[in-house]
Design the sequence.
């Protein structure tokens, strides 16, 4: 126990004060905090869904939970059920074997539900494309608000995408990252 | 080349891994399987290829880990009756591979005990076989959910818990059906295939020089292992010998991937046993590790750095020194954390005697990779069949016999230290020279076999005269290890399942393809 406590003290807090790009980002952070409160009146709850990814995007979403990004400190947390979620964070092309499950999870998410597609596959179908086994991009199956490109996008880009989705909502401003239409 | 165990003439394949291939008859198919089984060899993979356009018919292939190397047998099937003798009675791991092979190619294992679909869930019709060459893969069908017959357990107080395909955490999808009484698990049955996205069909007609990108996305956490196995197969098929510096850099990338995954798992395992401190600490180290990957190699997970013919990365002396320094720093940190894990009674109570796979069971069912080494199976491709530079480096084996979560944690700790040592050795002894060469344009068949962080990754590749892929089969060690997880949880309590599952950390995408 002594070693454990010493390690905690020795490590200190490694959360980075402001993610890159710095200036623009800090504004977005403030706006986000306001908007989350305005829109939801509480912390942002995210349900992550792997609809068919290679697991690369999941690794980077995991990384978002490490002390460097301090996600929970920013009022954002991952939840276990779509019924508890404000946002679905979806990765992969949608495997046809996952199509029904993805639609059901979407329907189980209470309004106003926000969908963020993560990664090149989620944006366009990526390297897997559309086939007998793949529906391609997430927007082919459920409506998407923001699509974050990258293979996989690094944690900071994922965070930026989450923020873009939330802060663009009330003003109906165009999302910072390439957004796809609301209609599937 | 003659494989010691089997009475068949094998043709040695060129390439970095010792491998040989033989054409067999139906009788020999079974004889070879029996001979290898008697000698204690393992089945590595089973797949098929449609070669009807070349006049060979459908071909079924099996690869065995023989004493002298990788032995691959090819069985051409009768054109009217595409069937082959079942292997699952000799090698239980073959069962799911045979079911998947039927779903994709429509060739049947004769007298197999289990003929339920595996990858086909109703998203395409039962008479549509995507890997047949005439099949247009862009066709999409209405999804119909098919009923899947789980094995049911009956008795007083027995009930079922269905979990998934979408799980509660940030993990890949799959379905687990638990039969339990009280808190105790009587039986677990897995149903996978949810993230099947048609990777093998996607490979068809792709340029040989680009396939590493798709192979590197079969399972994102093993992108280096897959890209290397793919490149090795491409080099074996075309008879290409890569420059020594390229091989050493590949090993550097592979060991960095191993460390990254082990750090992530060690943190997650602490977390699953209620020590959030472990997750915070190890995920901090993993982040530092990935950030240096991004700085030095241009990608946090090291995707697309290994290419057919070499690597797409070169390092100067300063960078090498930075990599070395990071190994020293991480080693100190991990040593400290290991001491904390070891002396934490609550953690050890959860780890020890949880999710046991006995060495006997591991041997009988063909467990492989990290999990096998935690169950007394002293096997590591980097030691048993070392390709360059592992032959020059000499890898120390991490092996435990308890077969529980604690043993899988210990193997990870030991392998982190060994990989750090290897990285330092590579940095010191990295040969000078070119890092990439051109692949000759020839028709061929090649195999690549790499000890990834999870276990052995196999890639089998057929390419044509125009430098295009005809067929590429990627095999993940998870095929072998998923069934063992079903055994490991028997008699444990339901709340220990996430911990046991994490201690194996198997790939869904890698086996679903």
Sequence:
């Amino acid at each position: 126990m002594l070693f454990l406590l010493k390690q905690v003290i020795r490590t200190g807090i490694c959360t980075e004060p402001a993610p890159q790009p710095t200036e623009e980002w800090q504004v977005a952070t403030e706006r986000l905090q306001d908007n989350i409160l305005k829109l939801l009146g509480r912390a942002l709850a995210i349900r992550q869904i792997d609809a068919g990814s290679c697991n690369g995007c999941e690794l980077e979403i995991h990384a978002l939970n490490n002390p460097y990004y301090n996600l929970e400190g920013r009022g954002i947390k991952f939840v276990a059920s779509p019924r508890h979620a404000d946002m679905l964070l979806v990765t992969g092309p949608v495997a046809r074997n996952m199509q029904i499950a993805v639609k059901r999870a979407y329907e189980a998410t209470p309004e106003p539900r926000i969908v963020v597609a993560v990664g090149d596959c989620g944006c366009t179908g990526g390297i897997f494309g559309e086939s007998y086994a793949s529906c391609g991009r997430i927007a082919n199956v459920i409506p998407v608000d923001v699509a974050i490109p990258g293979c996989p996008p690094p944690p900071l880009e994922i965070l930026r995408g989450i923020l873009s989705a939330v802060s663009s909502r009330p003003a109906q401003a165009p999302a910072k990252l390439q957004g796809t239409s609301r209609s599937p | 080349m003659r494989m010691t165990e089997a009475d068949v003439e094998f043709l040695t394949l060129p390439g970095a891994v010792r491998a040989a291939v033989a054409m067999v008859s139906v009788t020999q198919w079974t004889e070879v399987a029996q001979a290898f089984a008697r000698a204690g060899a393992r089945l590595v993979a089973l797949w098929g290829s449609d070669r009807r356009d070349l006049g060979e018919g459908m071909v079924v292939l099996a690869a065995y880990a023989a004493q002298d190397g990788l032995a691959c047998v090819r069985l051409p099937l009768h054109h009217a009756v595409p069937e082959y003798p079942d292997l699952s009675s000799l090698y239980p791991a073959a069962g799911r591979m045979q079911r998947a092979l039927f779903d994709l190619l429509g060739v049947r294992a004769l007298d197999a005990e289990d003929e339920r679909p595996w990858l086909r869930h109703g998203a395409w019709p039962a008479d549509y076989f995507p890997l047949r060459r005439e099949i247009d893969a862009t066709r999409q069908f209405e999804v119909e959910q098919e009923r899947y017959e789980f094995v049911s357990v009956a008795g007083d107080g027995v009930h079922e818990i269905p979990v998934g395909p979408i799980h509660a955490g940030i993990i890949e999808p799959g379905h687990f059906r638990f039969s339990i009484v009280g808190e105790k698990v009587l039986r677990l049955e897995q149903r996978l295939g949810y993230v099947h996205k048609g990777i093998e069909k996607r490979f068809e007609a792709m340029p040989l020089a680009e396939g590493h990108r798709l192979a590197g996305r079969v399972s994102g956490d093993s992108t280096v292992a897959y890209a290397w196995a793919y490149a090795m197969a491409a080099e074996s098929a075309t008879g290409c010998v890569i420059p020594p510096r390229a091989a050493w850099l590949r090993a550097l990338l592979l060991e960095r991937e191993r460390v990254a995954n082990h750090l992530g798992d060690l943190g997650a395992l602490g977390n699953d046993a209620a020590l959030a401190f472990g997750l915070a600490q190890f995920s901090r180290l993993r982040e530092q590790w990935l950030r240096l990957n991004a700085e030095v190699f241009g990608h946090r997970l090291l995707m697309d750095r290994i290419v057919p013919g070499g690597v797409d990365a070169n390092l100067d002396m300063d960078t090498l020194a930075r990599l070395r320094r990071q190994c020293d720093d991480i080693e100190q940190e991990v040593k400290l954390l290991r001491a904390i894990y070891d002396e934490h009674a609550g953690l050890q109570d959860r780890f020890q005697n949880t999710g046991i796979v006995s060495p006997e069971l591991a041997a009988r069912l063909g467990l492989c990779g990290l999990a096998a080494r935690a169950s007394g199976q002293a096997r590591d491709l980097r030691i048993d069949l070392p390709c360059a530079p592992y032959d020059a480096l000499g890898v120390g084996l991490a092996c435990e016999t308890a077969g529980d979560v604690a043993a899988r944690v210990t193997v990870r700790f030991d392998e982190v230290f060994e990989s750090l040592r290897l990285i330092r050795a590579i940095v010191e002894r990295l040969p000078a020279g070119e890092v990439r060469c051109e692949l000759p344009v020839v028709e061929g068949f090649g195999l690549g076999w790499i000890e990834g962080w999870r276990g052995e990754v196999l890639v089998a590749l057929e390419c044509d005269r125009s430098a295009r892929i005809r067929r590429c089969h990627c095999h993940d060690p998870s095929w072998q290890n998923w069934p063992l997880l079903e055994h490991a949880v028997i008699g444990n309590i339901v709340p220990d399942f996430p911990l046991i599952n994490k201690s194996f950390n198997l790939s869904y995408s890698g086996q679903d393809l």
Summary: The longest helix of chain B spans residues 244-272.
